[in-house]
Amino acid sequence: MKIQDLYDEAARERIVEEPPKRVDAPIRTPFERDRARLVHAASSRRLAAKTQVVGPQSDDFVRNRLTHSLEVAQVARDLSRALGSQPDIAETAALAHDLGHPPFGHNGERVLAEVAEACGGFEGNAQTLRLLTRLEAKTVDASGTSVGLNLTRATLDACTKYPWPRTEVTPKFGVYADDLPVFAWMREGAVGSRQCLEAQVMDLADDVAYSVHDVEDGVVAGRVDLTSFDTAAVWEAVRDWYLPDATDDTLDATLADLRAVGSWPSAPYDGSRRSLAALKNLTSDLIGRFCGAVQHATFAAGPGPFVRYRADLVVPAETRLQIAVLKGIAAHYVMRTDDRVALMERQRELLAELVAALTDRGPDALDRPFADDWRAASDDSARLRVVVDQVASLTDASAVAWHERLCRGRLV
Predict the structure, then answer these.
(1) How many CB atoms lie within 10 A of CB 26?
(2) Dihedral, CA atoms, 271, 275, 278, 279, nearest 10 degrees?
(3) I want to staple 390 with a disulfide (CB 3.0 to 4.6 A). Which of 7, 102, 343, 370 is the partner?
């Protein structure tokens, strides 16, 4: 059976029906069209100026949200193809997975979650769904209302990392209350809060790229030495951020497994081309190791086909542990350093002050689409959501510039 035959009419459906393109245009599948829409979206371009781990202005080598998303997309596409699912869906989901992130990465996300409490909170993944179905204008319905990029149901579902609304016990969620109608349409055919297979591929690809490449950036920046580091401090970071129940013995054994990878460095990084090549070989080997283990375990668990809700991705426990150890290294040596903690505090102050200023100023201070949303809002809660949408759309640099213009505050 061909891949396209595994995705039925419901999987290919869009919120607004669209006729085929003119006959002289290249023939593309619905999922290839989805991918093209992500590549050309303004929100995708803005990712180039948004923080991944450290600010994009800090160094020419470090990754930003866009380069991270491109790397996640490559991993997701290769794994999806190996499993026999539609690679365009997984790649598009990977390209979209960070669209909802505000300025200053997860630090900015925490600020907006606090200031947006009165309108239902803020979550980067819920913001991604809002962008794809409302804020990123490409198609309008019969009433003239934006339906965002008007992606297919299968692609939109694959972009949803947390397919459930906010509750008191779910700090992570994938949809705001006023986006529930389109969420319900998207989830037709789903069972409960289960991720579709393609979303699971995207989620794993994000974890793999995040863990490996953040360590690579840390090594090149001179913050991480893979030949010698404080395991006690790193294990504390692993437990604080990722695996609270992991024991020292388990983490020690996991590190030993990682060090057994043939390309694990035996000498400190020195900045030479030889060192750079060795580091790239290590990242390539680790990605191959993780994805190969997942592919093998998934095939061993059942016959497939590995599409939508007909199968699940299987991630071995040892693979999750190895990813968590790499994340812990980056967390301790990059994200918990004193200079970064001080910078993050200034960033939080800036975003909170910017939200307050825009709330006071109203539509005159907003970009035209958000000013229109403000005027159409029915109450203060809805207007606060508009302000949060505006701030979340900004890049790191534009957030600083807006703050300087509206708040006369200090630059970050």
Answers:
(1) 6
(2) -20
(3) 370
Residues 314 and 362 in one domain: no
Same domain, 44 and 164: yes
Scored b (16 or more CB within 10 A) or e, 69-95 reads: bbbbbebbbbbbebbbbbbbbbbbbbb
Low-confidence ranges of the chain (pLDDT < 70): 1, 22-26, 51-62, 409-412
pLDDT at 408: 75
Q: What digits encode the pLDDT tens for the residues 379-411?
A: 999 999 999 999 999 999 999 999 999 997 444
| Contact yes or no for 90/208 (Cβ under 8 A) | no
Alpha carbons 305 and 195: distance in angstroms, whole number: 16
Gap between the Cα atoms of 45 and 47, Å rounded: 5
Strand extents, DSSP E, 356-401: none
The predicted structure's pLDDT at residue 382: 97
Rounded Cα distance, 126 and 116, in Å: 13
Confidence at residue 8, expressed as pLDDT on a 0 to 100 scale: 92
- State pLDDT tens for residues 105-124: 888 999 999 999 999 999 99
Residue-by-residue DSSP string for 193-239: TPPPHHHHHHHHHHHHHHHHHHHHHHHHTTS--TTS--HHHHHHHHH
- The domain in which residue 398 lies consists of 345-407
Do residues 248 and 327 both lie within one domain? yes
**Token output for 256:** 């030993």
Within 13 Å, how many C-alpha atoms sit on residue 175's CB side?
Answer: 21
Q: From the CA atom positions of the chain, what is the Rg in Å?
A: 22
Tell me the C-alpha distance between 173 and 113, whole Å: 12
